[in-house]
Amino acid sequence: MTHFAPLRAPTRATFARIAKHATIAGVLLASAASAMADAASPVGIWKTIDDHTGQPKALVQITQDGDGTLEGKVIKGLEPNDRPDRRCTACTDSRKDQLILGMTILNDMKPDNGVWDGGKILDPENGKIYKCKMHLEDDGSKLVVRGYIGISLLGRSQTWVREQ
User: Fold this and answer.
1) Is the pLDDT of residue 27 over 70?
2) Among 4, 16, 60, 85, which one has the highest count of C-beta atoms within 10 angstroms of its own C-beta?
3) Where exactly are the structural domains of the chain?
4) Residue 22: enclosing H or E segment and its boundaries?
């Protein structure tokens, strides 16, 4: 015959342990959800890669404006001969002769089903402004940025790598 121990009412210590574990579980779930949301958004710091040489060029920080659009600023040059006092001498708009470091080169990008579109990107090397489209790959660790004139088929793409 099997004997069962009598049931006891839970103590305050038991409730405290349950509450502590529930709090920890909630924090972990919130952190995981936040990380997944970050991986689904281009917001962050990206290492740009030159599509001709394959070498890192700069760090660009992409932020989200209050209206939900994205913009990107150059926060650091990565080329061996890069100088912080480099200016956009080839620019033809208000950025003419402005420092490249701190310059907004990407603006007005709007989300559309996993693609960001409708904005513009500046190539500070030649001063040209292109229409821009971008999307994430590899679980958010890469950002494919396409600059184009007219239609997306007439352009070139760069793959940026997430730093943060």
Assistant:
1) no
2) 60
3) 10-39, 44-162
4) helix 12-39
Res 35 pLDDT > 50: no
Determine the Cα–Cα distance for residues 106 and 29; give it in Å rounded to an integer: 33
Q: Is the pTM of this model over 0.85?
A: no
* b/e burial code for range 38-73 (CB count within 10 A of at least 16 → b): eeeebebebbbbeeeeeebbbbbbbeeeeeebbbbb
Q: Give the CATH number of domain 44-162; options: 3.40.50.720, 2.40.128.520, 1.10.150.910, 3.40.50.300.
A: 2.40.128.520
Please report the sign of the dihedral spanned by the C-alpha atoms of residue 96, residue 98, residue 100, residue 105. Answer: negative
